[in-house]
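Hi team,

As requested, here is the filled-out complex form for the flavin-adenine dinucleotide run. I kept the field names the same as last time so the parser does not choke. Let me know if anything looks off before we queue the next batch.

— J.
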Amino acid sequence: MSDKFDVVVIGGGPGGYVAAIRAAQLGLKTACIDKYINKNGKAVFGGTCLNVGCIPSKALLDTSHKFHDASEEYATHGIGIKKVDIDVPRMIERKDEVVEKLTMGVAGLFKSNGVTPLEGTGKLLAGKVVEFTDHDGNTKQLEAENIIIATGSVPVEIPPAPLKEDIIVDSTGALEFQSIPKRLGVIGAGVIGLELGSVWSRLGSEVVILEAQDDFLSVVDRQIAREAQKVLTKQGLDIRTGARVTGTDIKRKAVTVTYTDKDGDQEIVVDKLIVAVGRRPYTEGLLSVDSGVTMDERGFIYVNDQCATDVPGVYAIGDVVRGPMLAHKASEEGVMVAERIAGEKAQVNYDLVPSVIYTHPEIAWVGKTEDELKAAGEKYKAGFFPFSASGRALAANDTDGMVKIIADEETDRVLGCHIIGPNAADLCQQVLIAMEFGSTAEDLGLTMFPHPALCEAVHEAALAVNGHAIHKANRRRK
Ligand code: FAD
Ligand code: AMP
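And here is what came back:
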């Protein structure tokens, strides 16, 4: 086998593996290097997303949601279950089975598309050469016309809470608990902290989430964030904002967590502590000093809007570059770069990257918030519709939350969609598609939606933008 490739991808997560598949589809001779070894000692592709991120966290969220429904929700429907048990090791095992299926799937896709998988570490040298070291320490040099760096990110660690075995853990460790902690602390009320806190809270843990910022979910639309805080608190999550963790002390398997808030020094004692304070780009050992690739001040590989680095023919995508750390953003960048290498004119629309928090209800949004528009001095109008008025949500007894749609005051073009509610991710995507096609709120209002369906809330929110909602009183009338 020749060691010359059209494309060498370093990193096999949703950015890297998707880029590799698309490049191979376009007829480019492609290799993808990944160094990840899973907990069974097996080299697997799929990156953070498949192994310790999106997929395993959703597997646990889904199991814990079913458990919660069976223990607390079914009775409302008249369904009696004498005793509901949760077998935590089985829950973890099922999660691992899902992960295995998907990582094997990536291996299969590489095979069917003709991507050469290389298990080991990649290092970018000068002159578009990649040094590949396999897991036995054998090294060889790969020449590539084009190189795509997709090495992703790793959890941030903070000095007051160093990781300790299975007691103080990061998000990866929190996917492996073999029993339900009686008291669980979480540092950081971001996406990961809220999702993992929800998993264990639904199974019975007393969960305290400590968040340094005063505002809860500061990047989320204020109305949606307020509703989220209300609903999640009602579910039993003890969310303490303005609480900065200053230290931890482990004694007899319990962790004392000290933090400061507006009233001074405080402490809680928990059995397990999850540190979920964000992620940082992963570039350790990746670049030789003369590679020519530069970083920004926060350690992300510097790229332009087309993901090109400072070195012609070298690109970087996904969590290792600027922008939201999301699997779909990484994948879209992967496709764009592969297509541009093949001479096509691809582009990512960075204005329309959807975000989702997979709590229940889900929180999903895309486009501008009211605060952003106010700060930019732009005139807008907003319509919202509560799920408590949705026939389908009532039928399902799942009525928390609302849909909010924001449109330009003059042109009526949809500028943002913010949802907390059942299936918010899928509902928000309907509006995102409309936004991609430059839809107005009126266009959405003129579209027919099936009845009874949760998406009728999207329809009504769009109608409410111009005061035409049928199933609620309108703030503005026309
Ligand atoms: P990664 O997935 O991190 O993959 C990078 C790969 O490169 C890794 O396998 C790594 O081992 C390998 N690598 C690194 N350096 C080298 C090297 N020098 N040589 C060879 N290989 C190397 N995002 C969502 O969109 N939705 C979600 O629901 C979601 N949930 C999440 C839940 C959790 C708990 C976590 C931790 C993350 C979640 N994310 C979610 C974020 C998502 O996982 C990341 O945004 C995504 O995986 C980034 O993809 P990537 O390809 O850039 O990098
Ligand atoms: P995210 O970046 O979405 O994963 O969220 C991480 C969250 O952790 C942010 O909201 C931070 O404000 C929060 N955070 C970071 N450091 C601390 C700390 N020492 N104590 C409490 N919260 C923190």
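Two things worth flagging: DSSP finds 13 helices and 21 strands in the chain. Residues 10-16, 33-36, 47-49, 52-54, 57, 121-122, 150-153, 171, 192, 282, 286, 318-319, 325-328, 330, 358 surround flavin-adenine dinucleotide (ligand 1) (CB under 6 Å).

Thanks,
J.
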